[in-house]
Every structure is written in structure tokens, then in C-alpha cells.
Specification:
Number of strands: 3
Distance between the termini: 29 Å
Strand content: 5-15%
Number of domains: 1
CATH superfamily: Rhomboid-like
Helix content: 55-70%
Strand order of the largest sheet: 1-2-3
Shape: globular
Largest sheet: 3 strands, antiparallel
Number of helices: 10
CATH class: Mainly Alpha
Length: 229
């Protein structure tokens, strides 16, 4: 199931969401050009758990940033065009509403905080991993967790490859619940060393966003798609 839109209009322009999409796109173009290509840039600025925990060191020619700084730089890098496009589609569909709900500066802080929480859980699960981790998906997972809390009944349009000319609408709660279950299953079934997907980061970001949204939910009245009484 691939989300292509939602029936949950925002009331303010998603300035921060658009800026994050632009930054990720510019970073990807930089990877292809002056950062030395996708593979080299991922090693230079991606988050390598074993390097962060001190269990390993990068070759001096690859160490372009201090290990703690890669917690941030890794959020803007991607391993390929499909990786980038998939993340930005989710950010565009779900981020505008969360930004509208939280406000621009709180949303930006929320985005980075959940991204750090995502990276933290991935490192905790695989502290000795020597594979670089990149992508905005950890922070975007936090956005999905918040969306689930604020608008579980909003309708999301999805694309099914088996029905290419039909866009069914399902509740966000079903879609995001299924997505989270798949990530949780991935944590136990496929370590990132095998599958290449940081499922732990997805779970960590989602849970962080979910918890923060639960705390904030009662502070502002929910919109028309908010939780039912």
C-alpha cells in the first residue's frame, strides 16, 4: 500500500515541511556531485553505530564529520532516488497536518527530536553495526506516530499496484497501524546488517512521535478528524 494523499486539509501553508523536503532534495543532489557520489557520501556523513559507540573507526579519508554530528547529517542523506522519493512522499502527505497542529517552530524541534530518538534506538539495538545509516525515515516515522494520535479516522488515499486505476480510501489508523506492525516485525526478523533497513529507527521515531502527540493532544481542540469521544 502506497499513500498518495489524504482528505485532511491543513489550514496554514506547510512552510517547514516544504523546507525539509527541499533540504533533503538538495542534499541528495550534493551527494551525487561534490560529496563524491552516493556510496562515498553515505560513508562520510552517515551514522555508523560502531563509530558512534567507539567500537570502530572510519578510515581517515572517510571521516568527514565528528561521529555525534552524523546523528544530524544522516537525516538528510539517502541511498538512492527511490529511498528519497518514498520518504518525501510520506513527509508531504502527513507532515503538513502535523506542522499545522504543532506550529512551525515546535514542529521543527519535534522533527529533529524524533529523528534523534530513532537513531538512538537503532544504535541501542545494534551498537556494533558497521553499516552506515542514512535517511529521513526516522524523523518521518515520528510524524506518522503523531498523525496517528491526532487523526486516526482521517481518510488516506492509497495506491495498490494490483488495482492501478483505483485509489481506495482507508482510515489513517489502519494504514499507520499496519505500517508500524511491519516495522516492528522487521526489528525481530531482519537485522539491518542483513536487510539493509533500519527498522529499529522506524520504531523508535514512531514511538517517540506517538508519545509526544499523546502528551500534547489535550492541549488544543482536535480537528474534525480527531479522536472520537
Amino acid at each position: 500500500m502506497i499513500p498518495v494523499g489524504d482528505e485532511n486539509p491543513a489550514h496554514r501553508p506547510p512552510v517547514v515541511t516544504v523546507a525539509l523536503i527541499a533540504l533533503c532534495t538538495l542534499a541528495f543532489l550534493a551527494q551525487l556531485t561534490f560529496l563524491g557520489g552516493l556510496e562515498r557520501s553515505v560513508w562520510r556523513l552517515g551514522l555508523v553505530p560502531a563509530v558512534l559507540t567507539g567500537e570502530a573507526r572510519l578510515h581517515p579519508g572517510l571521516a568527514a564529520a565528528p561521529a555525534p554530528l552524523t546523528l544530524l547529517t544522516s537525516m538528510f542523506l539517502h541511498g538512492g532516488f527511490l529511498h528519497l522519493a518514498g520518504n518525501l512522499v510520506y513527509l508531504w502527505i502527513f507532515g503538513n497536518n502535523v506542522e499545522d497542529r504543532l506550529g512551525r517552530l515546535p514542529y521543527l524541534l519535534f522533527y529533529f527530536a524524533t529523528g534523534l530518538a530513532a537513531a538512538g534506538l537503532q544504535v541501542a539495538l545494534e551498537p556494533g553495526s558497521r553499516l552506515p545509516m542514512v535517511g529521513a525515515s526516522g524523523a518521518i516515522s515520528g510524524v506518522l506516530g503523531a498523525y496517528l494520535v491526532f487523526w486516526p479516522h482521517a481518510r488516506v488515499l492509497i495506491f495498490l499496484p494490483i488495482l492501478p486505476f483505483f485509489l481506495p480510501r482507508i482510515r489513517a489508523g489502519w494504514l499507520l497501524g499496519f505500517w508500524f506492525a511491519m516495522q516492528l516485525a522487521g526489528v525481530f526478523a531482519w537485522p539491518s546488517e542483513v536487510g539493509g533497513v533500519a527498522f529499529g529507527a522506524h520504531v523508535g521515531g514512531f514511538l517517540a512521535g506517538f508519545v509526544v502527540a499523546l502528551v500534547l493532544r489535550g492541549r488544543r481542540p482536535p480537528g474534525p478528524w480527531g479522536p472520537r469521544a
